[in-house]
Amino acid sequence: MSNYRVKGATGDWEVVIGLEVHAQITSNAKLFSGASTEFGAEPNAQVSLIDAAMPGMLPTLNGECVKQAVRTGLAIDAEIHRWSRFDRKNYFYADLPQGYQISQLYHPIVGEGSLLVETEEGEKVIGVERIHIEQDAGKLMHDQHPTMSYVDLNRCGVALMEIVSKPDMRSPAEAGAYVKKLRAILRYVGSCDGNMEQGSMRADVNVSVRRTGEEFGTRTETKNVNSVRFIQAVVEYEAKRQVAVIEDGGKIVQETRLFDPDKGVTRSMRSKEDAHDYRYFPDPDLLPLVLTEEFVAECKASLPELPDAKRARFVDVLGIPPYNADVITSDVETARWFEALLAAGAEAKAGANWLTSELFGALNRLGKDIAASPVSPVQAAELLGLVADGTISGSLAKQVFEAMLETGDGAAKIVEDRGLKQTSDTGAIDAVIAQVLAANGDKVEQYKAGKEALFGFFVGQTMKAMAGKANPQVINELLKKSLA
User: Fold this and answer.
1) Where in this chain does the record put each Asn/Gln amidotransferase domain (predicted)?
2) Concatenated DSSP letters of 122-135
3) Closest CA to 72 of 169, 170, 201
4) With contact defined as beta carbons under 8 Å apart, do 55 and 193 qualify?
5) d(Cα 122, Cα 124) in Å, to the nearest integer?
6) Which of 186, 99, 183 minimizes the C-alpha distance to 137?
């Protein structure tokens, strides 16, 4: 149960949130035509005769899009409908050449499922009502000409999955956690790249408020929100706005709104239409979609290990701390990089700690993501191996890693070229210890009088005198003997 409440003049209010996430299906062609879906093309360069609604053009369903939708449904333990149907949603808009959008209102391909999300208040299961397949509309550009709007139909006909949650979320944090988890699953499955900046994943945010335990209030829908941070901002702003309206004696109108990210506010766009306003009817040019048991079984067999299962294996089998396992499995590219690190021979726990601290810190400084890491998993495994076998210390490993980032050389080469090998020569270490103790006679007396915390000081001074090249374990053993 979320503790999030909106403080009103007349008391506390609970926010109720549902999300409709539009995820562009990974495919090299559109839902009903062979036109390309590649991002960044010149305006209107990827428009087939079908997309442009030329007379006599009939849609042909892209089977890959069906497969990806089914795989997504299976990944969230949803019901897969063996029989589904396409409907026409009729409305006029300049970026919709057909005058209708082909969607699946009455018989979607995927039924109910659920997602387990983690928030600061604990775990929560959020229901998914349905996933249906539909085609995207084009895009209107209002800033290209002083008096006219331009239309780009490249996105027209692009295949989308609309993933509709139940109104189960009760805070901005829960909404953010849901979108992050859904995005992670889509990227693991490979059914959507989850790139919100490029518009391949965006959300319509439904928000209403109520007194705790009362009936749901009237909701508003804020369209096309394209980042987790903005989704959370919409929830926060809309909840406060609605409470203020109700407490001032007004009524919430069911409407469609837009979010202004610069001002952090939503504004009214149009009154919210109901299904009958769109005059839905079955698409006469498309047969119902019938899935065989063999097809569904093939889709299931093609699924990879998903984030929750991978996290459980990392913690229970490999002994990786839960926090590190969360970080690594939350992104598919990071998980793959880590698996490659293990395959190259790195020890799991040490590898996880190094990845989430040293590598992430370096990538953050360099402004790179893990896919563009200058150090490969094989090179990282070599570095960690040199620490594990005592060739270099942990502190020397940091120096070697920095050199690897600068030069691209392997760890063993850098250690050899720069003479950074750790020494376990007891004679040489004993000689330095003797010098350190002789130079700090007063601290030796204090240590022997019971101030045991000084032991770390002696270790540090010895390491400093040997330029970090002495084996810390050997220093500890020899110091204990010298101070006994």
Assistant:
1) 336-483
2) EEEEEEEEEEEEEE
3) 201
4) no
5) 7
6) 99
| CA–CA distances in Å: residue 199 to residues 21, 38, 60, 72, 137 | 11, 12, 25, 19, 12
| Long-range pairs, 473-477, Cβ under 8 A, ≥24 | 473/390, 474/424, 474/426, 474/429, 475/429, 475/433
CA distance 131 to 428: 69
Q: Please state the pTM of the whole predicted model.
A: 0.86
Q: Kindly indicate the confidence band of residue 422, based on its pLDDT and cuts at 50, 70 and 90.
A: low
* CA 50 – CA 36 distance, rounded (Å): 13
Answer whether 466's CB lies under 8 Å from 429's CB.
Answer: yes
Cα-based angle 166, 308, 299 (whole degrees, multiple of 5): 75
The CA distance from 347 to 384, in Å, is 8
Query: What's the half-sphere exposure (Cβ side, CA atoms, 13 Å) at 372?
Result: 7
CA-based nearest residue to 161, from 115, 223, 108, 125: 108
Residue 455 pLDDT level (bands cut at 50, 70, 90):
confident
Please tell me the predicted confidence (pLDDT) of residue 443. Answer: 74
Q: What is the C-alpha separation between 53 and 97, in angstroms, rounded? A: 6
> Domains of the chain (ranges plus CATH)?
6-297 (no CATH), 305-417 (no CATH), 426-483 (1.10.10.410)
pLDDT, mean of residues 77-104: 96
Tokens read off for 212 = 């705790």
pLDDT at 423: 61
